[in-house]
Amino acid sequence: MALGYVRPARPEDAGEIARIQLATWRVAYRRILPRHVLENLDEAWLARRWTAAVQEPPSDAHRVLVAVEQAEQSYLVGFVASGPADAEALAPNEPAESLGSGVAAVTDLLVEPRWGRRGHGSRLLAASVELWRSDGFDRAVAWAFDGDEATRKFLTSTGWSADGAARALDVDDMLVPQLRLHVALAAEPAPTPPAPAAPVD
């Protein structure tokens, strides 16, 4: 039986993270981003960026987590990257202070398509939420392509919703619309303590 779990990324994972990113983008975004942009992405360049993200994060709250499927052998099948919300999380002309300091931002959340529908995305998100809460964040945001129905459906199925912010990325002179989703990170309720035993007469 295959088992799935999530762990922090290691420097030696960077090449596989880059491969997953490239493979997933070329499938999921083939009708969203220009074909030549996807074909010309440099896997080695992406791997160097992920190495830096794992080895030299800007803060302790910047994290890269990976999803692993373990059967006869282990496979890296997805990843999530997040950190405190910064200017990249803002909509155009949105004041820098509008999001506040207690907001985490997802920059990437991808599961390679051939490993989809096996719970890896849910495990990555659940592990991230647990860490965001421990870091003191009370809300999280993520941008999704307007045409990326799979990501939007996944996030909304777990309690996220659009917050009204929108933008368009300029991808080689093509404007690609995005919308921002958010979720409150209320602490999980503490278990109800058992009722005291009745006194013995």
Automatic annotation (TrEMBL):
Keywords, ordered alphabetically: Acyltransferase, Transferase
Entry superkingdom: Bacteria
GO molecular function, one term: acyltransferase activity, transferring groups other than amino-acyl groups
InterPro entries reported for this sequence: Acyl_CoA_acyltransferase (IPR016181), Bact_Acetyltransf (IPR050832), GNAT_dom (IPR000182)
SUPFAM superfamilies listed in its UniProt record: Acyl-CoA N-acyltransferases (Nat) (SSF55729)
Pfam families, per database record: Acetyltransf_1
UniProt domain N-acetyltransferase: residue ranges: 4-182
Protein's name according to its UniProt entry: Acetyltransferase (GNAT) family protein
Source organism per UniProt: Micromonospora avicenniae
